[in-house]
């Protein structure tokens, strides 16, 4: 059975990317909404659950509680200890994973149709009835400590933490969802039980399913799996004010290469101009070797192996960020070139050729995301969380094609703020110091 399962999982990663995705809305007798792509040709299904709130729901003085709790969900549930739970999952040829970010907790499951009932019962126990045994708490707490220690010597982790502190003020986004050594050490079992109750509730639940299951069967499944959850959880955090201002911050770190994270206020996913911003980002720094920044910073001047930009539209704040690494004696020049390209795009916009090329790439790459049951399930719950209509997949590329050159250049002028661009640099950069950037 395990060999068969492995073959199924492998096959499902290469499903035709161009296949039409037909989504059905399913409402269970208990009132839970799920989106389904029915695919009976292989006796297998993928299930994706998301609970809005994520690490942002940590209670005051309990930073890291959601993260520690999430790490314990597969460490025993019901009458099974951690080894028993792992053995049960393996014997069913199933796969469960539990992941936390700042905005949601996700539960991803894959299992064979012949084991569906047992797999769902086991998954339910981990969600509804986790053990949180003290030996498991201490073991996972130790893993969190190890991760926090590793972050103190990782320039990427250091620069991200510094940027977030400066950007989000007193919002949970400003601090690591893993917590600190002090906050994690102080967490009790009661704190983890509270964290569990804060996030596992129906009022923040999104469900996506893909595979060998009918709408009627899925309706029964979701009630069996999630019907015992409380109706409401903890209140969502307020909007985060983006407080970072233009300038530069140097974090001294002994390394031959400086890492810089830069950014300013961004654009929300729900904004009507988001597709225009996506195209702009592709042209400026999100298009790999075809982007302006890669051409100017790497190809023409050899200042870096890579530079990229990315839109970061979180639930409670949106930023536009980028990252670059360069030798300590060249990072100042790299930053100067980035600022120049930022300003040029804001003032002069992009060309019609750049727009056409970006549209070709963005629309052509989109179908490649649908390369298996699990990715499709993840995309569907993401659509639900954003509030996209159920036919969004079919209409998304039309929305990209509808963006005009005037749209992109207007958004470039509104979004790109070279004076508001802040660079956080970790390393020993030559010719840079904390303060305002030179004119």
Would you tell me the overall average pLDDT?
94
The number of distinct helices, counting runs of at least 4 residues, comes to: 16
Rounded to the nearest angstrom, the distance between the terminal CA atoms is 66 Å
Strand content: 15-25%
- Spatial shape: globular
CATH architecture of the largest domain: 2-Layer Sandwich
Largest sheet entry: 6 strands, mixed
How many distinct folded domains? 2
Question: Can you tell me about this structure?
Answer:
This protein has 439 residues and is an alpha+beta fold. It folds into two domains: 225 residues, Metalloenzyme, LuxS/M16 peptidase-like (Cytochrome Bc1 Complex, Chain A, domain 1), CATH 3.30.830.10; 163 residues, Cytochrome Bc1 Complex, Chain A, domain 1. It is 43% helix and 19% strand. The protein has 16 helices and 13 strands. The chain has a six-stranded mixed beta sheet with strand order 1-2-8-3-7-6, with helices on both faces. A hairpin with a 5-residue loop joins strand 1 and strand 2. Helix 10 packs across helix 13. The longest helix has 18 residues. The protein is globular, with a radius of gyration of 23 Å. The N terminus is likely disordered.
């Amino acid at each position: 059975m395990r060999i068969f399962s492995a073959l199924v999982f492998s096959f499902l990663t290469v499903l035709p990317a161009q296949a039409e995705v037909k989504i059905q809305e399913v409402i269970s007798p208990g009132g839970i909404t799920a989106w389904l792509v029915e695919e009976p040709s292989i006796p297998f299904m993928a299930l994706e659950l998301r609970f809005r709130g994520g690490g942002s729901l940590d209670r005051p003085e309990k930073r890291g509680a959601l993260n520690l709790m999430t790490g314990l969900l597969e460490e025993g549930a019901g009458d099974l200890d951690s080894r028993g739970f792992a053995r049960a999952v393996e014997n069913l040829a199933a796969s469960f994973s539990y992941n936390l970010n700042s905005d949601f907790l996700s539960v991803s499951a894959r299992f064979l149709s012949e084991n569906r009932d047992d797999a769902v019962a086991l998954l339910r126990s981990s969600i509804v009835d986790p053990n949180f045994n003290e030996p498991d708490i201490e073991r996972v707490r130790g893993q969190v400590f190890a991760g926090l220690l590793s972050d103190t010597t990782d320039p990427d982790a250091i620069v991200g933490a510094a940027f977030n502190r400066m950007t989000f003020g007193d919002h949970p986004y400003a601090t690591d969802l893993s917590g600190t050594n002090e906050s994690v050490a102080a967490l009790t079992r009661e704190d983890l039980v509270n964290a569990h109750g804060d996030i596992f509730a129906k009022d923040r639940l999104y469900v996506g399913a893909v595979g060998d299951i009918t709408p009627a069967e899925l309706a029964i499944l979701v009630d069996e799996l999630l019907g015992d959850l409380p109706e409401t959880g903890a209140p969502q955090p307020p909007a985060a004010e983006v407080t970072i201002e233009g300038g530069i911050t140097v974090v001294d770190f002994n390394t031959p290469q400086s890492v810089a994270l830069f950014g300013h206020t961004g654009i929300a996913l729900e904004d009507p101009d988001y597709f225009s911003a996506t195209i702009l980002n592709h042209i400026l720094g999100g298009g790999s070797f075809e982007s302006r920044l890669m051409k100017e910073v790497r190809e023409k001047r050899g200042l870096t192996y890579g530079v990229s930009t990315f839109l970061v539209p979180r639930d409670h704040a949106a930023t536009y960020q980028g990252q670059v690494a360069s030798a300590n004696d060249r990072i100042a020049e790299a930053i100067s070139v980035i600022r120049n390209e930022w300003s040029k795009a804001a003032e002069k916009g992009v060309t019609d050729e750049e727009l056409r090329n970006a549209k070709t790439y963005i629309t052509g790459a989109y179908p490649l995301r649908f390369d298996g049951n699990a990715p499709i399930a993840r995309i569907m719950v993401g659509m639900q969380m954003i509030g996209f209509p159920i036919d969004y997949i079919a209409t998304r590329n039309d929305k990209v094609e509808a963006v005009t050159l005037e749209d992109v250049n207007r958004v470039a002028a509104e979004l790109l703020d070279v004076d508001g661009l802040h660079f956080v640099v970790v390393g020993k950069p030559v010719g840079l110091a904390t303060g305002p950037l030179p004119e």
